[in-house]
Amino acid sequence: MPVAHAETSDATLDDPHEPEGPQTRLSPLRILIALIVIAALTAGTYWWVRDSRTKAKESAVAAHESAAWFAPYVDTTLTPALQFQDPTVSTARQVILGFVVADPKSSCSPSWGGFYSLNAAGDQLNLDRRVAQLQNEGASAVVSFGGQANSELAVSCTDTVKLAAAYESVIKRYSLTTIDLDIEGAAQGDPASLVRRAQAIASVQKAATAAKSPLSVWLTLPVEPDGLQSDALSVVKAMLDNGVALAGVNVMAMDFTSAPQGMYSAITGALNGTHRQLTDLLRGEKLTSAQIWNRIGATVMIGQNDIAGQIVTVDDAKGVASFARTQHLGRVSMWSLKRDSQCGSQFARIGVRSNTCSGTAQTPLEFSKVLGSLTGSVSPSVATPSASASPSPRSNSNTVVDDPAHVPFPIWNPLASYPSAYKVVREGYVYQAKWYNSGVDPAAATQDSSAAPWQVVGPVLPGDHPPVIPTLAAGTYPKWAPAVAYKAGQKVLRDGLGYQAKYYTQGDDPAEVLTNPSGSPWKALYTIPGEPAPTG
Question: Strands 454-459 and 303-304, how do they pair?
């Protein structure tokens, strides 16, 4: 390309060393000042961007951390079993099931309250399917290990590897993302068990993280109005020293040695004291005061506590919920869901200590509703039903064909009559009769499930099969024959099972009592596992 030439003046030609136009000369001082200004502007822009991103991140974290979650404890082995999976029974998004302890006959085997093995709880309490139903509804179950009674696993099981396996067996069985370790009484004063427990939990937590299914661990400990006592602090220290990542410390704000200023004052005093103590214990993590609060939980005993004169009222519960929102507690719980009703149907019986009512004036489930105003979720990832979750029977539009060979209870028959507590299978779900009914479809949608005669127990699970009923030896009773007329009280054998005539009958197959327990002229002389005992 050609080069363009510009006209030049004579002066330029006369002095080849003179610059080609007017120039501004910059002194070294001006250059230095310019560099400082540029550097300041660059740094300011960087720190503004960094600060904005940090604040956005902190804001997102704070938004997640600020929502305290509420979960009532369920006394799992208390009979009759509380149907916690039913929204009319529990309005909470999560429940805490207590308590898993050592099997009295096998120190390293987990059991529910020392009464049921995990398998027995599945068979006799329908616990597996009730937990599955809760999870299908988009809620969460937390299992609590320990408690006040029985022998805590880490105390009984002296083999750390077996102890870890015991914890893991429970976690896997119920698909848990959060566990609760309720350590109180003698278990706090056993130094060897403190270390064993911490090492086992650290091992389980590490394996869960490696499997990309992180496990949150909460400690639940007794407390006094001034904070945690020395034994409780030892439990926290053992966990931290052995590498357990604690989600938080939940204080049992109940049964205080003394509460002269009232229960609400004692509860908040306990929480403030615990905050000061955890600030010291967790100093190495450099947490803010708000982050420390988010690692603290409070469990209150609604109504009458075990100590006379200590009563948590509904107004106290409202105060606790307000405190939790203001301070951004991690969680709030109550003991227990079964007690969330007034003692006395019409007139409140105040001060009654009971497992099945609160001992204070309240409306049904009022404590659950007050504390349930805390909207956080223990497991945000399962806060809503996943696409793979089984549909709720209340909105199940897909007809499921029930296979008699793979159901745990009789398939519902529209022509049969069912007594209270009888269980049936309908379109892939197990239902239990709340009262005598006939011809009412368990799967039929209803706006008010409390008015329906059926209560959903949970889904039919993989591996379910008809219950095995022990048979009787041939000749125990005469073999049933369709041509024979039987009088009331006569007994027969049908396929090895015993039956007794309720009234005169001929040609009515005794086996039909399974599908028509109330309408059959026969009474079964055996009990189906999980069914009410034969009557009539």
Answer: unpaired
